[in-house]
Amino acid sequence: MGEEKPATGGMRRPAAEWMSPAGVAGILMRHPLPALFACGLLLFMGVEYTIPMIPAAAPPLDLGFIATAAMHAGIAARPWLNSLLAALNTVFVAMQAAYILWAILVEQRPRAAIATLMMFTCRGLLGCSTQLPLPAEFLGSPMDFPVGNVSFFLFYSGHIAGAVIASLDMRRVGRYRLAALYDVLNLAQGVRLLACRGHYTIDLAVGVGAGLLFDMLAARYLDSKNVDSGETRCCSSCQKALVSQKLTS
Length: 249
What we know:
This protein is mainly alpha-helical. It has eleven helices and no strands. The chain has helices at 15-18, 21-30, 32-48, 63-67, 69-76, 79-105, 111-129, 158-172, 176-195, 201-224, 236-248. The longest helix is centred in the middle third of the chain and has 27 residues, at 79-105. The N and C termini lie far apart (69 Å).
């Protein structure tokens, strides 16, 4: 009888080996991104415990507002420019909606549409849970979407998240140039929202994360229903279920 091998296998290195200078150097060379985030953890642990808190009576501190201060002043002095940028932004939002509707209705690929429904529902729940104050320098426009100066949720940006979902779907089907165009327009949209004080920086950052998250959750949902969540159309069983439902209704 031969010797039994350890259950854990023989590939695991001793802790002393990877904690040695050579082992640490190897980890830094093979995994530079986690190492960078580890440095970020240490850095912001120090920042968090030493940064002065914003007083309750003071306005929020937003680095995005500081970076776009000159642009904000220029737009505030030219109301026509504010309306033009708002109208162009509304066109971009319509482009996002048109693409997502095309994907589900014409190409029969429901992933982007499901992700969008999840994203806006969660946005509504979070928007009702924590209502942030509207920035004092907000520049509204009747050309913005939603049309008119109506109330809206600040956290998080549905404009940004919707564009991310559409861009991800374009990449799945090989529309790389169109996806790159949407990414550039989304970046310009984010700068415009900051300059007009329509969103805080954190709203935009979480909007990007929300687009990525709900795209993945939509894929998991479709996988659980045995529907291809990638490039191909909705499965035949899904279509048969829709047809049978129409016949019985």
